[in-house]
Every structure is written in structure tokens, then in C-alpha cells.
């Protein structure tokens, strides 16, 4: 951790940076060069998806319409912004511009974590290190998806909650229009004025952006039918059960549908409905936690955001590899505060990220065909992810909700201790 510097850190002058910050910056540069190298050829599957799918969507969006009758388009309307942004970068191909923008966003997220933690009382650079170290475990994937940009918005929103709640809310609202889940990051805002400011500005920003997009494009809400029709994806928690069932004779099959590889066959629809019920139950638990929580600290908004997104990820019908980018970012923000309740959860996410990379891209083709090795990998990954979600929720509850004994002690009226005589002379009694 960075100790309080003898002189203030001037971020525009690297000579004032502590040694740890210089070491982290050097590591960030070297690791990101490797990540860019993994996608720069354009021949990997994630890069091909950007070059063909994202670029194709961008060309449709430039005509003033969202993709029509394209079941692969399942993103909220705000996703048009990162899809179109590379087309505004001159002298570069779409893939080059997209990767460059994601690298820039990654750098801003890293800088935000350092600025919020380095040399500040009660803060820790552990979060900055987690972001720097864990993101490359996903190889080049983070730079071939726009989840880095969405995660950076959510991270900035959380880090600004205490100082600039209206700005924090606006960033969360914009993020929700890009990929929905950043709306969950406002669940842990402190009660009272901060919550009113964050939630109001978030709703206003989301509505304003939606109105602008509705005025600029046709078919803004065409993504909803494809989302409703999604089934059980092979990498999801429910999909793990079907992966195991295939080894013992389950007669289902795998098929490319709605932009992902899904299971079809007996009991799949019921499993999909169960996943939705579990998501609803997770949301109900979060509302209960919000009502019962009494102890708020600087880490509580960050910890609640990580718990919420973990619960919604593990209960989702789809767990794509890029979802781990969200969890890395939120865990990094939690670790930026020394009093966080989520430190062991954040550490548990590191092997989850590693197993995700083993699953995709290394074993992904094998996972579609079935077999013990790919099944063992995805079951282990999802088992650890489920453990992380439950552990995170439990630690958040214990850190913020008083126990029954604690509530009784707080409610007990102040009075004389048993055996104490109010009229006794304290001096003579002594």
C-alpha cells in the first residue's frame, strides 16, 4: 500500500509519484501491450466479432435505425454510443479504433482508482493492483467488448458518490442505458440526501439519454423481444447442471440462438424460469438488506454494489466471459477502502477469472460438444462464482445489519446497573 507521501502527489508530474505507483504504471503499460497484441491481428474470435458484428451494427446505426429483426441485438439503446464511437476516429480501421478506445477507458479506470486511493487516509491501493493484475487474465477479451467502458462508468459513479452524488447518479444512469447492470450500483448509497440526489439524477440522466436516442433512431426498443426469448446458455449456472446431465445421458442438444450458445431439450425451459425466479429473489433480498441495514461506512456503497452484481450474475440465464470485467471493476473499488467487508470475496474472484479464461477461449468448442474436462472447468468456475456471491451477501449483511442481541442492546433504556444503589456515596463506596 502507498504510505502517505512526504509531498503531495501531482498526477501531471510522474516525478512526484511514489515508487509503488511507478511500479504499477510500469506493469499496466507492459500488460496492456500484451493484451493489445492478442487482438491486433484481428484473427482471434473476439476480434472477429468486433470486426464483423459490432462494425455491422455500427453501419446500421449510421442509417438512423437500430438493427431490425436481428436477434443478436440484445443491448439497451445506449449501446449505440460505444458501437458508433470507433467510426468517429479518423485514420484507423473500426477494430483498431474500438481497441484504442477500450485501452483509453481502461487507463482512465486505473487512474481513477489510483487517484482515489494513493496517499489518502483510510484508503488502499489494493484495488488499483487488482484491476491492473486481474484484467489481463482474460487475455485480449476486455478490449474486444465494450464492457470495459460500462464498468469504468460504474466505477467512476461509485468513487464519486460521496463527493459528487449528482454526478455519480448521472454516470450510473448513463451506464444503465448501456448495459442495465450499473443501475444496481446505486443500491448501497447512504440513506437521506445522498440517496435522493444519486437516484434522482440517475433516473433523469437515463431518461434524457433515452429521449435523445429515441429522437435520433428508429426501433429503439426492439431489443426487448430477443431478451425475453433467451434460454439457458451453456456457461451459466443452470447450464452447468445440463453439462453434467449430458454426461449421464440427458438427451438435449446445443444450438446457437440469440447470439449465444444455448441448451435445448427437456427441462431447459423450467431451468430458465427458475433462473428468473432466483433473480427476483436476489432483488428481494437486496431490498430487505437495504431496509435492515443500519451501519454505514465508506465501503458500504462499494460492497453493496459488488454483492448486487454478483447475485444477478450468478442467477442469470447467461454468464458470458466479459461479465467478469464487471466483477473485477467492482471488487477493485471495494478494495480501495481498507474497511471493506469484501476483501476475501475479491481474492476468490481471481481464480474465477482464471477458470473463465480456461473455459473461453481454450475449452469453449469442447464445451459445446460435451465431455469431462470442459464440464469440470465450467462447474468449478460456476461453483466458485456461486460461493463468492453467497459469501459476499453474507459478509455485507453481517457488516451492516445489527444482530438481534445488538438491536436489543440499542433499544434497552439507560438505567442503573443491577445491584447499584443510586443514593450510595461514590466516594465512600469506593
UniProtKB/TrEMBL annotation:
**Topology of the protein relative to the lipid bilayer:** Multi-pass membrane protein
Q: Which Pfam families match?
A: GT87 (PF09594)
Main localization category = membrane
Protein's UniProt keywords contain Amino-acid biosynthesis:
no
Q: What subcellular locations does the record give?
A: Cell membrane
Q: Which UniProt keywords apply?
A: Cell membrane, Membrane, Transferase, Transmembrane, Transmembrane helix
CC terms in the record's Gene Ontology section: plasma membrane
Question: Domain of life, per the record?
Answer: Bacteria
Q: Name one GO molecular function term.
A: hexosyltransferase activity
Establish whether keyword Transferase is in the entry: yes
Q: Which family does it belong to?
A: Belongs to the glycosyltransferase 87 family.
Name the chain's protein: Membrane protein
The source organism is Kitasatospora cheerisanensis KCTC 2395
Organism taxonomic ancestry: Bacteria, Bacillati, Actinomycetota, Actinomycetes, Kitasatosporales
